[in-house]
Amino acid sequence: MVLPALVASLALASGAAWAQSARTGAGEGDLAVFKKACSGCHKWHGGGGGGYGGEALSLRKTQLDKEQVAEVVRCGRPGTGMPYHLRGAYDSVKCYDSLKADMGSSMPPETAVFLRPAEIDAVATYVTTQLKGKGDPTIEECTAFFGATSRACDIYRKKEGSDAPAVSH
Ligand code: HEC
After folding, report:
1. Which of 20, 53, 41, 55 shows the shortest CA–CA distance to 125?
2. What does the alpha-carbon distance between residue 151 and residue 130 come to, in Å, rounded to a whole number?
3. CA-to-CA distance for 141 and 103, rounded, in angstroms?
4. What is the pLDDT of residue 110?
5. What is the pLDDT of residue 21?
6. pLDDT digits (tens, 9 = 90+) for 5-50
7. For 3, 11, 18, 59, which has the most beta carbons within 10 A of its beta carbon?
8. Atom of ligand 1 at shortest distance to CA of 38?
9. How many Å apart are CA 51 and CA 81, to the nearest integer?
10. Which is the closest atom of ligand 1 to the Cα of 33?
């Protein structure tokens, strides 16, 4: 049964996390969690690429559904640089039916930012509704992430040939 688990995890969410999800809109997941825990490797647009932790896969091109994304976030991906984000994973909570001792050298790294179950649910929703299946990143997505005035989005402005004045210095 999915529903009781969902209700339980929502009940566990702190007031702050709840307010945060509410701000991005029902069913869209949580950009704030993605920002703090994922964008360092998968980039702001989720397209991934090289960097710390190796080659992070594109979440825009992922084939995984929400529950599969949540599992990868909870448990990491064995044998790769994708870290586990659930406190107690492979220890008090089995992952892929295994504990640390079973994993040997394929034990995935521990996250720098542990997430609560409600945050994992919210970020899996964010990945599957806001990133998965989207094509190239757009200026709208960029300003939603960085804010309307950020120069980080200038390259998308030019590419889309918008009327916004080009920033030349
Ligand atoms: C330390 C870098 C790092 C961080 C932080 C990180 N990832 Fe990853 N992630 C990776 C790497 C590397 C892979 C590629 C694993 C592989 O080769 O299968 C990956 C793979 C994935 C996949 C599998 C995609 C697929 O189609 O198979 C998902 C889903 C994913 N990450 C989601 C997330 C989410 C959501 C977060 C934030 C909660 C996150 N990752 C944080 C490095 C990272």
Report:
1. 20
2. 22
3. 38
4. 97
5. 43
6. 554 444 444 444 444 444 455 678 899 999 999 999 999 999 988 7
7. 59
8. 37
9. 10
10. 38
Can you give the pLDDT at residue 96?
A: 97
Which residues surround ligand 1 with Cβ inside 6 Å? Answer: 37-38, 40-42, 52-57, 59, 62-64, 69, 72-73, 77, 80-83, 85, 123, 127
- Buried-state track 7-38, b at ≥16 Cβ within 10 A, e below 16: eebeeebeeebeebbeebeeeebbbbbbeebb
At 129, which amino acid appears?
A: T
Cα 166 to averaged position of ligand 1 atoms, centre (Å):
34
- Here the tokens at position 127 are 């990945």
- The number of angstroms, rounded, from the C-alpha of 64 to the middle of its chain's C-alpha atoms is 13
Distance CA 89, CA 71 (A): 11
pLDDT in the model for residue 3: 54
Ligand 1, atom 17, residue with closest C-alpha: 80
CB 56, CB 82: distance < 8 Å: yes
Candidates 82, 86, 127, 130: which one to mutate for ligand 1, based on the most atoms within 8 Å of Cβ? Answer: 82
